[in-house]
Design brief:
The chain is an alpha/beta fold and 339 residues long. The protein has one domain (81-338): Rossmann fold. Helices cover 27% and strands 23% of the residues. The strands form three sheets. Strands 2-1-12-11-10-9-7-8-6-3 form a ten-stranded mixed beta sheet, sandwiched between helices. Strands 4-5 form a two-stranded antiparallel ribbon. Strands 13-14 form a two-stranded antiparallel ribbon. Strand 13 (309-311) and strand 14 form a beta hairpin. Helix 3 (176-195) crosses helix 4. The longest helix has 20 residues, at 176-195. The radius of gyration is 19 Å and the shape is globular. It starts with a strand and ends with a helix.
Length: 339
C-alpha cells in the first residue's frame, strides 16, 4: 500500500518565483503534484473547494527596526497579562524541556519552561495538541483563537512559552539559529508533560508550530529525532502541522503525517522554498501536504495583523479567507490522525 502526499495550490502552478515576488494566479484551486509514499492510505483531504483567498495590494509604510521590535515585545506582554482573564479555563503550567543527549550515556539537563493548558470538559483521555509560537512569541488574539477552536474540537491544548523563563523578548534576527536549537527540547518536554496527565491520551499528540516554531515542528517530525533527547520510549508525536515555516532550513523528510501552510507572497519564508523542499523529499514515507495561498503574506493566521505592516523589512498581513481554510484543513487533519 502507498500513502499519498500532495501539494495543493490555490490558483495556479507551483511556486517558483524569486525571494520576494508574488504570482498572479486565477481563481480556483487545483492539485499540481502527487507524491506517493510508502505506507497506508489515500490522500488525507479532498482537494476541490474553490479558492477563498484574496490579495490586498495597497502599499504599506515601512517601519523602522526599533518600532518593529517594540511592537513584537508588546505582543508578548499583552498575551502574558491577559491570559488569566480568558473565559475558557486556561492554566499556567511549568515543566522541563527534555534532557538532550551529549554522548552515549551523558545528557544535559532540560530548562524550566512555562506553558498554558486548556482542556475540554470531562475526564478524558483526550487527544492533545502542542503549539509552538513564532520568533516573537504569540499574541493573545492568536492564543485565544487556537484555544477556542482546539478545545471545541475536543483537544487538550498546551501553548508552550519558550521565552518567558529564558528572558527572551524575540529571536527574529541574529539569535534565530541559537534559539532554534534551544527550543527543540521544549517540544519533547511538553510531550512528556502531557503524557503524565491522566486526561491526555499520550499516544494521540500532535505538534503545531508557527514560523520559527514551525521550523521546530518540522525538526521534531523528522524520523528518529527523539533519539537526540530522553523522552520515554513509548512517547512519539503522531502528526505535525507547520504554518509558514522556513522550509529551506528543514532537514529530513518528516516521519509522521505533516501539513504545511504557506502564503504565495510570503517574503520571509518563501513558498518556493517549501515547494522545492517537498519535491526534494521524494515519495517514500507518511503523507506530506503543502497548501499554498495566493496573494497571502507571512503571518496570515494572526488576527492582530490588520492592517498589514512591515516588520524587520518583511510584510506581515492577516488573511481571513486563508485562515478560515487553514483552520478547516487543520481540523480535518487532526481528526483524521488523532481520532
Amino acid at each position: 500500500m502507498k500513502r499519498r502526499g500532495f501539494i495543493t495550490l490555490f490558483g495556479g502552478a507551483a511556486a517558483t518565483w524569486p525571494f520576494a515576488a508574488g504570482a498572479q494566479q486565477p481563481n480556483g484551486m487545483r492539485r499540481i503534484a502527487m507524491l506517493t509514499s510508502a505506507n497506508g492510505e489515500d490522500q488525507v483531504f479532498k482537494s476541490g473547494r474553490a479558492a477563498r483567498g484574496h490579495s490586498r495590494e495597497t502599499p504599506l509604510p515601512r517601519t523602522v527596526t526599533f518600532q518593529a521590535a517594540l511592537v513584537l515585545m508588546l505582543w508578548c506582554a499583552v498575551g502574558a497579562l491577559t491570559a488569566d482573564a480568558w473565559a475558557t479555563p486556561l492554566e499556567r503550567v511549568e515543566f522541563e524541556s527534555a534532557s538532550q543527549r551529549l554522548g552515549s550515556s551523558a545528557f544535559s539537563a532540560g530548562d524550566p519552561i512555562q506553558g498554558y493548558l486548556a482542556k475540554p470538559d470531562g475526564a478524558g483521555p483526550f487527544p492533545a495538541v502542542i503549539v509552538l509560537h513564532g520568533c516573537a512569541g504569540m499574541h493573545d488574539t492568536t492564543k485565544r483563537k487556537l484555544v477556542d477552536e482546539l478545545v471545541a474540537w475536543g483537544y487538550v491544548i498546551l501553548l508552550v512559552d519558550s521565552y518567558a523563563t529564558r528572558r527572551i523578548d524575540n529571536a527574529c534576527l541574529s539569535t534565530a539559529f541559537a534559539t532554534f536549537f534551544r527550543r527543540r527540547p521544549d517540544a519533547y518536554g511538553a510531550l512528556v508533560f502531557l503524557g503524565s496527565q491522566t486526561f491526555v491520551d499520550p499516544h494521540r499528540v500532535a505538534v503545531v508550530g508557527f514560523s520559527a516554531g514551525a521550523w521546530v515542528t518540522l525538526s521534531v517530525a523528522e524520523p528518529n529525532s527523539f533519539e537526540l533527547f530522553e523522552p520515554p520510549s513509548n512517547l512519539r508525536f503522531r502528526a505535525a502541522a507547520a504554518f509558514y515555516p522556513p522550509c529551506g532550513l528543514a532537514g529530513a523528510r518528516p516521519g509522521i503525517p505533516t501539513l504545511i501552510f504557506i502564503g504565495a507572497s510570503d517574503d520571509w519564508t518563501p513558498a518556493a522554498h517549501c515547494s522545492n523542499k517537498v519535491a526534494g523529499w521524494g515519495q517514500d514515507g507518511p503523507p506530506v501536504e503543502l497548501v499554498v495561498y495566493p496573494g497571502t503574506y507571512h503571518g496570515f493566521y494572526y488576527p492582530q495583523l490588520q492592517p498589514g505592516r512591515m516588520i524587520f523589512d518583511h510584510r506581515l498581513e492577516y488573511n481571513g479567507a486563508a485562515t478560515d481554510d487553514a483552520s478547516q484543513r487543520l481540523h480535518e487533519f487532526l481528526d483524521h490522525h488523532l481520532k
